Amino acid sequence: MTALLSNASVPGSTAVLLPTTDGPFNLTAAAQAGLSPGQSLAPLCTLCCCGFINRTLAVVFMVCLAFAIVVGNVVTLTVFVQTRQSRTPQGYLKVSLAIADMMVGVLVVPFSVYTEISLMVTSTPPIWYQSSSTSPATSSSLGGLVSPWQPCMLIGPVFAGCTFVSISTIFLMTLERSVAILRPLHKDALVTRRRTLLLILLSWAASFLLALAPLIFSRNFTLEYNECSRMCNYSPLLIGNQLPPDANILLLFPAFDFTLLGGTLAVNIVSFSSIRRYTRKRKLLSEGSLSDGGGGAGGGGGCPHRPSFSDIKAAKTIGILTFAFTASFTPIAVFVLGNVVGYTWCNFSFFAFWILTGNSCCNVIIYSVRDHRFRKGMTLLFQRDHSHSHGEKA
Fold first, then answer.
1. What residues contact residue 158 under an 8 Å CB cut-off, 6+ apart?
2. Which helix or strand (DSSP H or E) is residue 39 part of?
3. Long-range contacts formed by 119-123: CB under 8 A, 24+ apart
4. What angle in degrees, to the nearest 10, is found between the helix axes of 346-358 and 309-340?
5. Which of 24, 264, 296, 363 has the fewest Cβ atoms within 10 Å of its own Cβ atom?
6. Cα–Cα distances in angstroms (integers) from residue 346 to residues 226, 329, 336, 341, in the given order
7. What b/e string do you get for 221-246 counting C-beta neighbours within 10 Å, with b at 16 or more?
8. In 3-state terms, what secondary structure has residue 14?
């Protein structure tokens, strides 16, 4: 438990802070730099970001990733908004997923780029870097001392909340496809646009409430820029060299992630089992080995309520989305397990977090390969832009 809370880096956790008279002080960075509380704190030098060349490569990677995330999700949103065939419950869920991914590319990644460039250009960290113990307080008009505002108080919950929104949206997409596969005749009655929009709103509200839970329900947590993951993470405050009694609240994050991912996997197994049975019966029927007992157009070799080919293909596409997100989330799960047994993997935390962040630009690639309607919408979109440009020239 102690190892998990002191070093875990699921979206919302970092190194433990040691409270001093001036404020919380980062224990890991202090030990690395050999400084006393109140002195200027140099960032921890890791393999991925140690030295000017490695830092430059890391910044170039972050910039390219932010560009890919924003451009890819802008294209996705434009196609879904302008294509009438995409104005379905499944299309609304994909729009929600694209918005969450784009927020990561617009807010989270650029902030890491700005911080890393500041650390490269200036000899001292930014005024808000790490925590208030390393930042000089300023006098307020009322005569008191005010610490500089910590941008991580915004960026950290945004990243955690968008991660939870992505997981919950993929879960809702899986449920929507399972209804289309298992109950195709009841799909339109069960999965309506109004219910889908309501579930999307509830998903966003619950995800960001969970992301803010350590700040709402406890005063023993802060947010700071982690020198290992190069992102804003939650950090519990030590009380007398001991973890706070409510430190277990951080376990809500992995519990939520693994519960929804496990539920998504279970629903996918049920859906694909049904698809496999239907495909086998259809193959036997085409070979003449199975009589058409259903009769008429509703037959299908014992499958009177068979799903359409588009529903089956959409279910496979969502299965690929689930696999991609699970694969990107697995390194963080491995990192957490390593912390449980006592390992501190600073370099690995960088790769784990940024692999998860890179998933935000994967959805448009999956749609382009698997979704015929999406490819058609992209073709029409670019053809329209091309025709407009020719018209303006003429």
1. 103, 104, 107, 108, 211
2. none
3. 119/43, 119/55, 120/52, 120/55, 120/56, 120/59
4. 170
5. 296
6. 10, 17, 12, 15
7. bbbbbbbbbbbbbbbbbbeeeebbee
8. coil
pLDDT by residue (tens digit) across 108-166?
Answer: 999 999 988 888 888 677 777 755 444 444 444 444 444 567 889 999 999 999 999 99
Amino acid (one-letter) located at 100: A
- Bridge partner list, 239: 242
Type of residue at 245 = P
Range with the poorest average pLDDT among 91-95, 130-134, 305-309, 369-373: 130-134
- Beta-sheet pairing, 138-139 with 221-225: unpaired
What Å distances lie between residue 40 and 46, 123, 131, 139, CA to CA? 19, 10, 11, 20
d(CA 360, CA 78): 16
pTM of the predicted structure, to 2 decimals: 0.76
Tell me the residue type at 130.
Q
